[in-house]
Amino acid sequence: MKTGTNEQDLLKGLANNDKLAVETIYKQHYNMVQTLIISNNGSPEDAKDIFQEAMIVLYEKAKSGVFELNCLLKTYLYSVCRRLWLKRLSQMQRTVAEVENMEDVVAVEEQLEWHEQQNADFHLMEKAMQSLGEPCRSLLEAYYLQKKSMVEIAGNFGYTNADNAKNQKYKCLMRLKKLFFDQYNNTQG
Hints:
The protein is mainly alpha-helical and 189 residues long. The chain has helices at residues 5-15, 19-38, 44-64, 73-91, 102-105, 108-132, 136-145, 150-157, 162-188. The chain starts with a helix and ends with a helix. The protein is elongated. It is built from nine helices and no strands. It is 77% helix and 0% strand.
């Protein structure tokens, strides 16, 4: 399986100490690694350490000039992080069972599938938000992302009171839900 041009560009950027390439790899893959570590007896600090070690491994491979990535970058990083974490667990004597049984503890395929589905759902939600239009998008962002009260929203959006703002928020939420599920059902069929 050949990897995409974008991933090859990221590897070249990493080898050349390109800050944007490093940031992109972090943004795209760190949460997956954090989920792996935390769900297997680790802490957020452990996840940062393991991801950093994996980035060093990837950097050294990319810098060598002979490294050929034959899978997705996500799969490679996940595999390296998983091995590093199992090694650390073994060193800390926190293993649950013999190393042969660790495959049961770290279900690679299930977690990757779950993570990929989560990412796909987030992208669909992002698309639904973009096609929602104004003022609904701004109203929902004000309430859910900026954590503004209904009184503040009523004042900012020109509604007569908080109840009217709440009704509008509900209508916008129903529109967003419909847009999301229309897209979701189109991708499933």
